[in-house]
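Issue 218. Parser rejects a valid record. Input:
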Amino acid sequence: METPEYVSVSINEEFAKREDFETQTLSEGDVVEFLYFMGGGR
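Output the parser choked on:
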């Protein structure tokens, strides 16, 4: 990922805090989504 500062992480539909990334634990069945901000338009 070229710009990780533009990525948000959602775990079970709740946004994870960036400062908790290194200590966050996951459980079986957790739903993790990586959301990447994309600008654009005309």
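Fixed in the parser; the record now loads. The CA atoms of residues 28 and 38 lie 30 Å apart.
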